[in-house]
């Protein structure tokens, strides 16, 4: 039943959005940005929902993924699609450095990951011979032209980022439906009990951290090629933490499509409506909306819509 609903919606989004909004580069850029945030929110929700770990440091994976892809394409001359994959691999390697913090729990884990994000930002700033330092990297190759179609345009980029987030949503759903997903959900109730049954909780959590980092790194790499410029304060900015978390919680981080829905709704509302109503303090409205959602529907927007549909 879900497939019967989701597939037509996906087809409509794939074709309908460019037809309706493709004439406006500004609106398409907002849609692209919302999907970038949605991809990061999806990766964050995977780690939080399946791995049971709250991260405040996903900006590390966004930044590392962007820098790796920018360097291997701009300086080594590799194709952009290869750069996107290597950006994900680079983010996985960054996550591998963080694996020792899996021994920590709760806020200690979240703060440790945040500390790593700051370390990577400092490295990107100080290692100027490779990263360009505070001046950043300019002239990052855009998304390629394939069979005469330019994926470097706002509409072309929409097809790429939509394909990326849909692929990652499918991977998330497959993992959640597998016996690994069952073991991870059981760990939330009693990690000690699952260990007695022979489940290696540390290994599973590490796998979720690596997978979440890879997904985030690919999205970060896409964003680097999309904007064509990268510098440390932007690549490792706090917005890559706050906005995806808000989107995931608002949409329903315990569902697969909730973070994507939350990102589109939250970001577009903020940019198209709240910013017009309150230009200098529109984040206040966004914060109030999030508080209201947590109070009246703690599981997020998607479960709320599902309950209303069933009613």
Automatic annotation (TrEMBL):
Coiled-coil regions listed in the entry: none
Topology within the bilayer: Multi-pass membrane protein
First-listed, main subcellular location of the protein, grouped into a coarse class: membrane
Pfam families reported in the protein's UniProt record: BPD_transp_2
Chain segments annotated as transmembrane: 43-68, 80-102, 108-124, 131-151, 157-177, 207-228, 234-253, 284-301
Keyword Transmembrane helix included in the entry's annotation: yes
Compartments (UniProt record): Cell membrane
GO function terms (MF aspect): branched-chain amino acid transmembrane transporter activity
A GO CC term attached to the entry: plasma membrane
InterPro entries assigned to the protein according to its UniProt record, in alphabetical order: ABC_transp_permease, LivM-like
Keywords, in A-Z order: Cell membrane, Membrane, Transmembrane, Transmembrane helix
Keyword Cell membrane: yes
PANTHER family linked to this entry: HIGH-AFFINITY BRANCHED-CHAIN AMINO ACID TRANSPORT PROTEIN BRAE (PTHR30482:SF10), HIGH-AFFINITY BRANCHED-CHAIN AMINO ACID TRANSPORT SYSTEM PERMEASE (PTHR30482)
Protein name in the entry: Branched-chain amino acid ABC transporter permease
Native source organism of the sequence: Pseudoduganella armeniaca
Record lineage: Bacteria, Pseudomonadati, Pseudomonadota, Betaproteobacteria, Burkholderiales
């Amino acid at each position: 039943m879900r497939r019967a609903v989701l597939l037509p919606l996906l087809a409509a989004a794939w074709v309908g959005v460019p037809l309706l909004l493709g004439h406006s580069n500004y609106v398409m850029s907002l849609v692209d940005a919302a999907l970038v945030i949605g991809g990061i929110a999806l990766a964050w929700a995977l780690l939080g929902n399946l791995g049971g770990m709250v991260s405040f440091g996903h900006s590390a994976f966004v930044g590392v993924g962007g820098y790796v892809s920018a360097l291997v394409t701009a300086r080594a001359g590799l194709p952009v699609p290869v750069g996107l994959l290597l950006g994900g691999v680079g983010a996985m390697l960054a996550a591998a450095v963080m694996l020792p913090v899996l021994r920590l729990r709760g806020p200690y884990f979240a703060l440790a990951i945040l500390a790593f994000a700051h370390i990577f930002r400092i490295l990107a700033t100080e290692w100027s011979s490779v990263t360009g330092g505070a001046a950043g990297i300019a002239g990052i190759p855009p998304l390629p032209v394939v069979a005469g179609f330019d994926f470097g345009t706002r509409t072309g980029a929409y097809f790429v980022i939509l394909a990326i987030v849909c692929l990652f949503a499918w991977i998330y759903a497959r993992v959640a439906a597998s016996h690994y997903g069952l073991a991870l959900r059981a760990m939330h109730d009693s990690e000690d009990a699952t260990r007695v049954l022979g489940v290696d909780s540390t290994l599973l959590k590490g796998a979720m951290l690596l997978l979440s980092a890879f997904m985030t790194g690919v999205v970060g790499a896409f964003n680097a090629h999309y904007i064509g410029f990268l510098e440390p304060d932007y690549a490792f900015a706090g917005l890559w933490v706050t906005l995806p978390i808000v989107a995931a919680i608002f949409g329903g981080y315990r569902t697969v499509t909730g973070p994507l829905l939350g990102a589109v709704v939250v970001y577009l509302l903020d940019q198209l409506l709240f910013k017009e109503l309150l230009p200098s303090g529109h984040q206040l409205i966004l914060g109030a909306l999030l508080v209201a959602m947590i109070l009246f529907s703690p599981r997020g927007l998607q479960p709320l819509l599902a309950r209303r549909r069933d009613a």
